[in-house]
Specification:
single chain; about 675 residues; alpha+beta; Butyryl-CoA Dehydrogenase, subunit A, domain 3; 5 domains; seven-stranded mixed beta sheet; 11 helices; elongated
Length: about 675
């Protein structure tokens, strides 16, 4: 059966047989769909449906992130239109909304309606809808908007930094699929099924001159046959299926990258705006989404979206504040926000604390000492504040050990209470006998015979501060919340005190050696009567035997009958005078009486100069820290400062270097001295 078809190129109207590919008799242009007579507009419908599927993420996903002079802002396409309307740019906003968002989706919907075959519109309605598609195609500005974005990337790259979001990629795909749907649409397929020559038994005539017999003969010459269309190819519908999968993947990716939303409340906004960054250690870990005033207009509420990696920062106890330019006599902080955007930063709380979503921001940056958790917080009482404020330092021997957290009136207004935070590595210095005073930085003392001037650190000179001293007998360590008196000035003897406080224990890598306590017992051969005596010390298990002080491993000269018993742990051993071999001066090795399992001995080295170390004894005793400044090398041994609490109970203790955990010596105690005998490696 033949149909009347018009050539797309030259417009010639001609008959074309069904089921075959036909070409124009005049210009040889292929007639009908370029895919074949059975396809119709299926491919155009598939592209239109895929474009409509991508329309939703293209409008809602983040489109662009723009950074200019430190100000960053990310928004979707609909968010950008909303911003234009909110800022009063009604004309521009409505143009973008109508011609780049509304009209394209109407065109694609109409195109999809025309391209499908199941629910055909009436011929007249098809013509109206097709004219609508033609007119909308002239006014839609999808390609113009996409080109404008590309031009912005190229031309403004040196002034403004652009970052493409998932919405831009989806929008570009949406534009491409829309163009493909329009280009592949064949309008002649809309009316082809009604143009058969056999379906016109009564052709129109202006004169009734043609007899009825001739019309009947023509109807018999061109019979109307029923045509069964072949099965349709369905692979083109994989295009919208792929569009659905891509859309789902993009939405899942964006959702997975959206961290937790937290709420911050500040008394002052200090110019913070939506799009401002939340930074920690200089790394962006969130972004401000909204900024608004509270209902009573007294506070500023911020909503901050964290990055997934920074979710653990928002825990109970975390402190947030706005970084802005601040200047005082000691320097300038937040200088980068003079030309760039203000941003938020934080001080995390306890990593084990519960995650929370609401925080009250700080008006001022917190004390830097608080960045080191686990310290000690105490309270100082004084009649007046004397210029103390948040952030000033607390010093011990001109070394900063903490800072002032806050200062204010006591509950009854009778005194000033200053809360002080001491860093964990210095908290052992705060004892019951500690004395504190207000250190202005300059102290002048004078009399008839002398005049002395003391100038403290530059920080205390400019900002003031708090100083601390310890008496020779400082007492026990205090708990958090302990109260002290803040004196106005120190006494001279406070400045001369040099106590030894060794409560701070360094963290050593690896396990410490475990020593065993030994007791030497013998009977003293006296002139008139005999008396039992004993000596205690510590032995270290080595591969060769028990290593310890010679006076603990040898039979004393005054022992009755030259006999003595050494009890190692709970095992008694009868000593003989020739069983011990000497190694270091004052130390020897007693061989094991029976075989033992392999023992683990720390590496041994001989230090050249005194260094920080710990004295180790039994597993139930805490190591005693000895600073390098407390030792003095003389004739191959270290003389320990007499002010340190090194008693005879440490006789034979192991000296372990803090730097590498090596065994560098052993403690040797006598009636008049405490020394560390340096170790000698076995191969020396």
């Amino acid at each position: 059966m033949s149909h009347l078809k018009s050539c797309h190129c030259c417009g010639l109207v001609q008959t074309a047989p069904d089921g075959v590919r036909a070409a124009c008799a005049r210009c040889a242009t292929k007639l009908g769909s370029w895919l074949g007579p059975d396809w119709g507009n299926e491919l155009s419908a598939a592209f239109a449906l895929a474009a409509l599927i991508l329309y939703v993420p293209a409008m809602w996903l983040p489109f662009l992130r723009i950074e200019r002079l430190g100000h960053a802002h990310a928004s979707s396409l609909l968010g950008g239109v909303r911003t234009l309307l909110a800022d009063g740019h009604w004309l521009v906003g409505l143009i973008v909304l109508l011609f780049s968002i509304v009209l394209p989706v109407i065109k694609l919907t109409a195109l999809l309606l025309l391209a499908q075959r199941r629910w055909r519109l009436a011929h007249r309605n098809r013509a109206v809808v097709y004219r609508l598609v033609e007119h909308l195609g002239r006014w839609g500005m999808l390609d113009v908007l996409l080109v404008a974005v590309m031009v912005a990337f190229v031309k403004l790259g040196g002034l403004v930094e652009f970052h493409a979001g998932a919405g831009l990629l989806t929008f570009a795909s949406f534009v491409l699929l829309s163009l493909c749907a329009s280009a592949l649409f064949d309008p002649f397929e809309l009316w082809d099924e009604g143009l058969s020559l056999a379906q016109n038994p009564e052709p129109a005539s202006t004169s009734g001159a043609q007899p009825a017999e001739h019309t009947q003969v023509m109807a018999h010459e061109v019979p109307a046959a029923m045509v069964t269309p072949p099965p349709r190819r369905r692979w083109v519908w994989l295009i919208p299926v792929v569009a659905v999968l891509v859309t789902g993947w993009l939405i899942a990716s964006v959702v997975s990258q959206r961290g937790r939303l937290i709420a911050l409340t500040f008394r002052e906004g200090h110019g913070i705006a939506a799009g401002a960054e939340l930074k920690y250690h200089g790394i962006v870990c969130g972004e401000v989404e909204t900024v608004r005033l509270s209902d009573d207009l007294t506070q500023v509420h911020l909503e901050v979206r964290l990055t997934p990696e920074a979710d653990g920062l928002a825990r109970d106890g975390a402190r947030f504040w706005i970084v802005r330019p601040q200047a005082d006599l000691t320097g300038i902080a937040g200088l980068e926000t003079l030309v760039g955007a203000k941003y938020l930063t934080l001080l995390p709380g306890n990593p084990q604390a519960q995650r929370v979503t609401s925080f009250v921001g700080l008006d001022e940056p917190p004390v830097l000492d608080l960045e080191v958790p686990g310290g000690l917080e105490i309270v100082l009482q004084s009649p007046g504040g004397a210029g103390l404020r948040t952030g000033v330092g607390v010093h011990y021997r001109d070394q900063r050990i903490g800072g002032v957290v806050s200062t204010g009136l006591a509950g009854d207004g009778s005194a000033i209470e200053t809360r002080v935070y001491v860093r964990p590595q210095f908290s052992h210095l705060v004892r019951e006998g500690s004395l504190f005073w207000n250190d202005s930085g300059i102290r002048l003392r004078g009399g008839l015979t002398e005049l002395s001037l003391h100038i403290g650190t530059a920080e205390t000179l400019l900002r003031g501060g708090v100083a601390m001293s310890l008496p020779p007998d400082p007492g026990e360590a205090v708990a958090a919340g302990h109260r002290f008196i803040l004196h106005s000035r120190p006494e001279q003897e406070w400045l001369d005190w040099q106590p030894a406080v060794t409560g701070a224990q360094p963290v050593l890598d690896g396990a410490l050696p475990k020593l065993v306590q030994a007791t030497l017992q013998w009977t003293h051969d006296g002139l008139f009567f005999d008396r039992d005596r004993e000596l205690r010390g510590w032995l270290l298990a080595t591969e060769e035997g028990w290593s310890g002080p010679l006076d603990l491993l040898s039979v004393p000269d005054d022992a009755l009958d030259g006999r003595a018993t050494l009890t190692i742990g709970e095992e008694p051993i009868t000593l003989s005078s020739d069983a011990v071999s000497t190694r270091e001066p004052g130390f020897g090795v007693l061989p094991y009486e029976q075989s033992r399992e392999a023992v683990t001995v720390p590496p041994v080295r001989t230090p050249q100069v005194p260094e920080d170390c710990v004295l180790v004894t039994g597993p139930d005793a805490s190591p005693l820290f000895v600073a390098a400044v407390r030792c003095r090398r003389v004739d191959g041994v270290w003389l320990i400062d007499e002010a340190l609490p090194v008693s005879s109970a440490l006789h034979g203790a192991a000296c372990i270097a803090v730097a590498d955990g090596a065994l560098v010596g052993r403690v040797l105690c006598s009636d008049d001295s405490r020394v560390i005998v340096l170790s000698t490696p076995a191969n020396d």
